[in-house]
Amino acid sequence: MQKSSHFAREDSQEHLPTHPHQHQQHTVNMKRRTLSGSCGVGVFIFAFAFIAIAFATPSWLVSDYRITGAKLDRLGLWVHCFRSLPDVNDDSQRRFFVGCRWVYDPFTTGYDEIRGFLLPAFMIATQFFYTLAFIGMLLSAIGVLVFFLCAGPDQKHFITLIRSVGYVLLGAGVCAAIAVIVFAGFGNRNGWMPEHANNWFGWSFILACVGSVLTLVAATLFLSEAHVQQRKRLQFKESQTRFELVRG
User: Which residue in 18, 75, 97, 178 has the fewest CB atoms around it within 10 Å?
Assistant: First the structure.
């Protein structure tokens, strides 16, 4: 009787799956984030900080501080700071603009009259493309937070989320790159800001350049993450199908 029960146990053991680790294979392959995704989040944080700081600070073009009689102090996308800028429309040179003002300041007398001088076509293009880049970074920040805090590979739209973040970052990086290239080509040319030989590109412009490059790097990392997660999902489905066949 004992021998028959012993044989029965051995017979039942022979029908068990020979590779039980196959059932756990999906937990190993389907990690929440790969190295590309983790690096993408880190690079995005620096890119977002640089883009936002450059967007808000008035040091895209600065004057040599050693020159006491300089007319320009510094300027950014939205704020211009002058030491003593004469009104270009006043032939008698009796009106001067001193201090920092919002470029669309409606309260300073005569400031709206020189707005065409302050905002030539290349400056408007720089504002436009860099504003698009900043909006793209804000939208991407929402997606990155969802990707980092909430989303997982078991969710249906996980790969779509990562791919969307990657493409939005790619568009933001391209817009930021266009903005800095336009400003680099025309921002310190002769005929715009006075004494252009004593002006140079400031730290805000440097941050804008670095931020545009980091944004493109972050976009590449997120698109790579989407590709890796797509491949892992396909592998998981194939392994799940094989496991069901073996189990059946």
Answer: 18
Name the band, by pLDDT with cuts 50, 70 and 90, for residue 90: low
Residues contacting residue 136 through CB under 8 Å, at least 6 positions apart: 168, 169, 171, 172, 175
What lies within 8 Å, CB to CB, of 143 at 6+ separation is 161, 164, 165, 168
Helix-helix angle 203-247:35-56, to 10 degrees: 160
Other CB atoms within 10 Å distance of the CB of residue 242: 12
Place of tokens 């190993």: 28
How far apart are alpha carbons 174 and 179 in whole angstroms?
Answer: 9
d(CA 234, CA 248): 21
Contact at 8 Å (CB) between 228 and 18? Answer: no
pLDDT in tens, 176-204: 999 999 999 999 888 888 887 889 999 99
Report whether 154 contacts 119 (CB < 8 A): no
Give the amino acid at 28: V
According to DSSP, the residues that pair with 86 across neighbouring strands are 96
3-state secondary structure of 101: strand
